[in-house]
Amino acid sequence: MDILIFAALGLAMWAQSKVKGNFEKWSQVQASARMNGAQVARRILDAEGLHHVQVTHSQQGALSDHYDPKAKTIRLSDPVHNGNSISSLSVAAHEVGHAIQDSTNYSMLLLRHKLFPAANIGSQMAPFLLIGGFLLEMANLITVGIVLFSAAVLFQVVTLPVEYDASRRAKNQLVQLGMISNQEVRGVGKVLNAAALTYVASTLMAVLQLIKFIMIARSQR
Protein backbone atom coordinates (compact mmCIF):
# COMPACT_ATOMS: atom_id res chain seq x y z
CA MET A 1 0.00 0.00 0.00
CA ASP A 2 2.85 2.41 0.84
CA ILE A 3 4.35 1.73 -2.57
CA LEU A 4 1.04 2.61 -4.24
CA ILE A 5 0.77 5.84 -2.26
CA PHE A 6 4.31 6.86 -3.20
CA ALA A 7 3.50 6.01 -6.82
CA ALA A 8 0.41 8.21 -6.64
CA LEU A 9 2.49 11.00 -5.09
CA GLY A 10 4.96 10.68 -7.93
CA LEU A 11 2.10 10.82 -10.41
CA ALA A 12 0.77 13.98 -8.74
CA MET A 13 4.16 15.68 -8.92
CA TRP A 14 4.58 14.65 -12.55
CA ALA A 15 1.07 15.88 -13.38
CA GLN A 16 1.76 19.24 -11.76
CA SER A 17 4.95 19.66 -13.75
CA LYS A 18 3.06 18.63 -16.90
CA VAL A 19 0.46 21.34 -16.25
CA LYS A 20 3.14 24.01 -15.96
CA GLY A 21 5.05 22.62 -18.93
CA ASN A 22 2.01 22.52 -21.22
CA PHE A 23 0.84 25.95 -20.09
CA GLU A 24 4.26 27.46 -20.75
CA LYS A 25 4.60 25.67 -24.10
CA TRP A 26 1.24 26.75 -25.45
CA SER A 27 1.51 30.21 -23.92
CA GLN A 28 4.14 30.81 -26.59
CA VAL A 29 1.61 30.06 -29.34
CA GLN A 30 -0.63 33.00 -30.18
CA ALA A 31 -4.24 32.07 -30.93
CA SER A 32 -5.62 33.04 -34.31
CA ALA A 33 -8.58 34.81 -32.66
CA ARG A 34 -6.28 37.63 -31.50
CA MET A 35 -8.31 37.92 -28.30
CA ASN A 36 -7.07 37.82 -24.72
CA GLY A 37 -8.46 35.52 -22.06
CA ALA A 38 -10.76 38.15 -20.58
CA GLN A 39 -12.30 38.90 -23.97
CA VAL A 40 -12.79 35.21 -24.70
CA ALA A 41 -14.46 34.66 -21.33
CA ARG A 42 -16.76 37.62 -21.89
CA ARG A 43 -17.72 36.49 -25.37
CA ILE A 44 -18.62 32.96 -24.27
CA LEU A 45 -20.57 34.27 -21.27
CA ASP A 46 -22.55 36.64 -23.47
CA ALA A 47 -23.22 33.88 -26.01
CA GLU A 48 -24.67 31.81 -23.15
CA GLY A 49 -26.76 34.73 -21.90
CA LEU A 50 -24.70 35.04 -18.71
CA HIS A 51 -24.38 38.81 -18.89
CA HIS A 52 -24.54 39.08 -15.08
CA VAL A 53 -21.34 37.06 -14.58
CA GLN A 54 -18.34 39.34 -14.24
CA VAL A 55 -14.78 38.74 -15.46
CA THR A 56 -12.12 40.28 -13.22
CA HIS A 57 -8.35 40.40 -12.97
CA SER A 58 -7.02 38.24 -10.12
CA GLN A 59 -3.92 39.32 -8.23
CA GLN A 60 -3.22 35.91 -6.71
CA GLY A 61 -0.56 34.84 -9.21
CA ALA A 62 -0.30 32.48 -12.16
CA LEU A 63 -2.70 29.52 -12.39
CA SER A 64 -4.93 30.96 -9.64
CA ASP A 65 -7.82 31.24 -12.10
CA HIS A 66 -11.22 30.24 -10.75
CA TYR A 67 -14.95 30.83 -10.85
CA ASP A 68 -16.59 32.21 -7.70
CA PRO A 69 -20.20 30.92 -7.66
CA LYS A 70 -21.26 33.19 -4.78
CA ALA A 71 -20.02 36.39 -6.41
CA LYS A 72 -20.88 35.13 -9.92
CA THR A 73 -17.40 36.21 -10.96
CA ILE A 74 -14.63 34.65 -13.02
CA ARG A 75 -11.23 35.68 -11.69
CA LEU A 76 -8.36 35.31 -14.15
CA SER A 77 -4.66 35.54 -13.36
CA ASP A 78 -2.50 38.01 -15.29
CA PRO A 79 -1.14 35.52 -17.89
CA VAL A 80 -4.69 34.38 -18.68
CA HIS A 81 -6.54 37.69 -18.35
CA ASN A 82 -4.17 39.63 -20.60
CA GLY A 83 -2.69 36.80 -22.66
CA ASN A 84 -3.84 35.87 -26.15
CA SER A 85 -2.16 32.48 -26.36
CA ILE A 86 -3.71 29.02 -26.69
CA SER A 87 -3.07 28.49 -22.96
CA SER A 88 -4.78 31.75 -22.00
CA LEU A 89 -7.87 31.01 -24.07
CA SER A 90 -8.06 27.41 -22.80
CA VAL A 91 -7.95 28.35 -19.11
CA ALA A 92 -10.35 31.27 -19.52
CA ALA A 93 -12.85 29.09 -21.37
CA HIS A 94 -12.52 26.36 -18.74
CA GLU A 95 -13.51 28.77 -15.97
CA VAL A 96 -16.48 29.90 -18.06
CA GLY A 97 -17.38 26.22 -18.24
CA HIS A 98 -17.89 26.29 -14.47
CA ALA A 99 -20.09 29.38 -14.77
CA ILE A 100 -22.22 27.56 -17.35
CA GLN A 101 -22.45 24.55 -15.02
CA ASP A 102 -23.64 26.88 -12.27
CA SER A 103 -26.28 28.49 -14.47
CA THR A 104 -27.65 25.13 -15.64
CA ASN A 105 -27.60 23.58 -12.15
CA TYR A 106 -25.21 20.86 -13.23
CA SER A 107 -25.87 18.03 -10.77
CA MET A 108 -22.27 17.16 -9.92
CA LEU A 109 -21.43 20.81 -9.26
CA LEU A 110 -24.43 21.12 -6.94
CA LEU A 111 -23.30 17.97 -5.12
CA ARG A 112 -19.77 19.38 -4.77
CA HIS A 113 -21.16 22.59 -3.26
CA LYS A 114 -23.16 20.56 -0.72
CA LEU A 115 -20.13 18.46 0.18
CA PHE A 116 -17.79 21.43 0.59
CA PRO A 117 -18.55 22.28 4.28
CA ALA A 118 -18.02 18.68 5.41
CA ALA A 119 -14.99 18.27 3.16
CA ASN A 120 -13.45 21.48 4.48
CA ILE A 121 -13.85 20.35 8.08
CA GLY A 122 -12.62 16.88 7.20
CA SER A 123 -9.45 18.07 5.48
CA GLN A 124 -8.56 20.25 8.48
CA MET A 125 -9.56 18.01 11.38
CA ALA A 126 -9.05 14.45 10.10
CA PRO A 127 -5.21 14.42 10.23
CA PHE A 128 -5.17 15.48 13.90
CA LEU A 129 -7.88 13.02 14.87
CA LEU A 130 -6.19 10.15 13.06
CA ILE A 131 -2.75 10.86 14.49
CA GLY A 132 -4.20 11.27 17.98
CA GLY A 133 -6.28 8.14 17.62
CA PHE A 134 -3.37 5.97 16.49
CA LEU A 135 -0.99 7.32 19.12
CA LEU A 136 -3.50 6.97 21.96
CA GLU A 137 -4.98 3.77 20.52
CA MET A 138 -8.47 5.23 20.70
CA ALA A 139 -10.68 3.41 18.19
CA ASN A 140 -13.54 5.91 18.40
CA LEU A 141 -11.22 8.81 17.62
CA ILE A 142 -9.80 6.92 14.65
CA THR A 143 -13.32 6.17 13.37
CA VAL A 144 -14.31 9.85 13.52
CA GLY A 145 -11.09 10.78 11.73
CA ILE A 146 -11.76 8.24 8.96
CA VAL A 147 -15.34 9.49 8.51
CA LEU A 148 -14.16 13.10 8.21
CA PHE A 149 -11.36 12.15 5.84
CA SER A 150 -13.87 10.18 3.76
CA ALA A 151 -15.87 13.39 3.27
CA ALA A 152 -12.77 15.15 1.94
CA VAL A 153 -12.01 12.21 -0.38
CA LEU A 154 -15.59 12.11 -1.65
CA PHE A 155 -15.34 15.82 -2.46
CA GLN A 156 -12.26 15.13 -4.58
CA VAL A 157 -13.95 12.23 -6.36
CA VAL A 158 -16.96 14.41 -7.23
CA THR A 159 -14.60 17.14 -8.44
CA LEU A 160 -13.31 14.91 -11.26
CA PRO A 161 -16.47 14.89 -13.43
CA VAL A 162 -16.98 18.60 -12.66
CA GLU A 163 -13.55 19.49 -14.04
CA TYR A 164 -13.77 17.21 -17.07
CA ASP A 165 -17.21 18.55 -17.93
CA ALA A 166 -15.98 22.16 -17.67
CA SER A 167 -13.12 21.35 -20.04
CA ARG A 168 -15.51 19.69 -22.49
CA ARG A 169 -17.76 22.73 -22.45
CA ALA A 170 -14.73 25.01 -22.88
CA LYS A 171 -13.46 23.20 -25.97
CA ASN A 172 -16.93 23.06 -27.52
CA GLN A 173 -17.52 26.78 -26.98
CA LEU A 174 -14.16 27.76 -28.42
CA VAL A 175 -14.85 25.71 -31.54
CA GLN A 176 -18.50 26.70 -31.97
CA LEU A 177 -17.78 30.42 -31.63
CA GLY A 178 -14.88 30.17 -34.05
CA MET A 179 -12.26 31.36 -31.56
CA ILE A 180 -9.85 28.54 -32.37
CA SER A 181 -9.02 26.83 -35.64
CA ASN A 182 -9.00 23.09 -36.26
CA GLN A 183 -5.21 23.14 -35.92
CA GLU A 184 -5.46 24.81 -32.50
CA VAL A 185 -7.86 22.26 -31.01
CA ARG A 186 -4.93 19.96 -30.23
CA GLY A 187 -3.20 22.63 -28.16
CA VAL A 188 -6.37 23.38 -26.21
CA GLY A 189 -6.78 19.69 -25.49
CA LYS A 190 -3.19 19.40 -24.27
CA VAL A 191 -3.60 22.27 -21.81
CA LEU A 192 -6.97 21.13 -20.46
CA ASN A 193 -6.06 17.43 -20.24
CA ALA A 194 -2.88 18.19 -18.31
CA ALA A 195 -4.86 20.24 -15.80
CA ALA A 196 -7.42 17.45 -15.40
CA LEU A 197 -4.65 14.94 -14.78
CA THR A 198 -3.63 16.76 -11.58
CA TYR A 199 -7.13 16.14 -10.17
CA VAL A 200 -6.93 12.47 -11.10
CA ALA A 201 -3.56 12.07 -9.38
CA SER A 202 -4.54 13.89 -6.18
CA THR A 203 -7.81 11.95 -5.97
CA LEU A 204 -6.04 8.63 -6.45
CA MET A 205 -3.58 9.47 -3.68
CA ALA A 206 -6.40 10.50 -1.32
CA VAL A 207 -8.33 7.28 -1.99
CA LEU A 208 -5.24 5.15 -1.34
CA GLN A 209 -4.55 7.01 1.92
CA LEU A 210 -8.13 6.43 3.03
CA ILE A 211 -7.82 2.71 2.30
CA LYS A 212 -4.57 2.61 4.27
CA PHE A 213 -6.16 4.31 7.29
CA ILE A 214 -9.03 1.82 7.22
CA MET A 215 -6.65 -1.14 7.01
CA ILE A 216 -4.58 0.15 9.95
CA ALA A 217 -7.70 0.73 12.03
CA ARG A 218 -8.94 -2.80 11.33
CA SER A 219 -5.58 -4.34 12.20
CA GLN A 220 -5.54 -2.55 15.56
CA ARG A 221 -8.95 -3.96 16.41
From TrEMBL:
- List the PANTHER family hit by this protein, alphabetically: MEMBRANE PROTEASE YUGP-RELATED (PTHR36434:SF1)
The organism named in the record is Alkalibacillus salilacus
- Write out the GO MF terms: peptidase activity
| Name of the protein in its database record | Zn-dependent membrane protease YugP
TM region(s), chain numbering: 141-162, 191-211
Q: Quote any Pfam family the record assigns.
A: Zn_peptidase_2
Q: Does the keyword Nucleotide-binding apply?
A: no
**Highest taxon of the lineage:** Bacteria
InterPro entries in UniProt: Zn_peptidase_2
Keyword check for Nucleus, yes or no. no
Gene Ontology biological process: proteolysis
Q: Which UniProt keywords apply?
A: Hydrolase, Membrane, Protease, Transmembrane, Transmembrane helix
